[in-house]
Amino acid sequence: xxxxxxxxxxxxxxxxxxxxxxxxxxxxxxxxxxxxxxxxxxxxxxxxxxxxxxxxxxxxxxxxxxxxxxxxxxxxxxxxxxxxxxxxxxxxxxxxxxxx
Length: 100
Hints:
Layout: H1 5-10, E1 21-29, E2 33-40, E3 49-54, E4 57-61, H2 64-73, H3 79-94
Antiparallel strand pairs: 1-2, 2-3, 3-4
Helix pairs in contact: 2-3
C-alpha cells in the first residue's frame, strides 16, 4: 500500500497490520493527532468489523454506521464528513475495489 507523506505522518500513533486491515479514513485532529478508521477483514467471522484508533486507543464496532455516529457525537467528525466516509466506503465495496 502506497501512502503519502501526510498520511504516513498521521499513522504514526496507529498500529496497523495491512494484511488484516484496510484504511477507511484518516481524519486529522487538533494537536497533530488523527482518527484512523479501519476495516478488519477476518474470514472467520464472515463480515467486516471496524476499528477506530485515536491517541493510542483502539475501539471496535460491528458497523461503520455506529462507529461514525459515535465519532460525530464525540465531535471528531461533522455529520457531512461521516456521510462522505460511509458513501465512499460502500461505493468502493460495491465496485469491487475495496473490502470484499
